[in-house]
Write a structure and sequence with these properties.
InterPro entries: DinB-like, DinB/YfiT-like
CATH class: Mainly Alpha
Radius of gyration: 19 Å
Order of helices and strands: HHHHEEHH
Mean pLDDT: 91
Strand content: under 5%
Pfam family, one: DinB_2
Number of strands: 2
Protein name: DinB-like domain-containing protein
Structural class: mainly alpha
Amino acid sequence: MLEKEELISHFEGVRKRTLKYLGQLPEGVIDWRPDEGKFSIGDIIRHLGSAELMFFHAITQNEWKYDGHGPEKGKTLAEAIHYLEQCHATVLAGLRQLEPEMLKGKVKNVLGYEVSAWRIIMAMTEHEIHHRGQLSAYMQANHIDPPQIFGLKIEQIPKDESRRYGEAEEDARHQ
């Protein structure tokens, strides 16, 4: 298990990269959705905030409650992002107050199985990454280039011409 501050730092890094995506969105796409009945861009942003509170509640109360992601939590892009940031600040403050032993304690996951609380934090970050990928697809469908999460496109990383696919496996068999 990572130490509490490492978990928090990882979580903050995930959010920082998500905010880069949100910073690329024009106001006019807040209600865009790929199809009826699917999350809109605004729904995703508000859902991330509400889900973050849900995960933290599960860690501290050992029960799952979701407060929804409706437009009352932010009708405009700025309001939705503000809601997300408020939820994040609340959860970060709460995580910082948790005793390290609490993170090792068992809580029920959403399916009712007991897991260590620190795994719920990891699931919370995985959940956000999932929805950031969804936002990326939504952005591309709207002809908006999503930012590079680590600063470079894969085509900008130097190629290693000395190794071709399969060579490492071949080398390993001959040793």
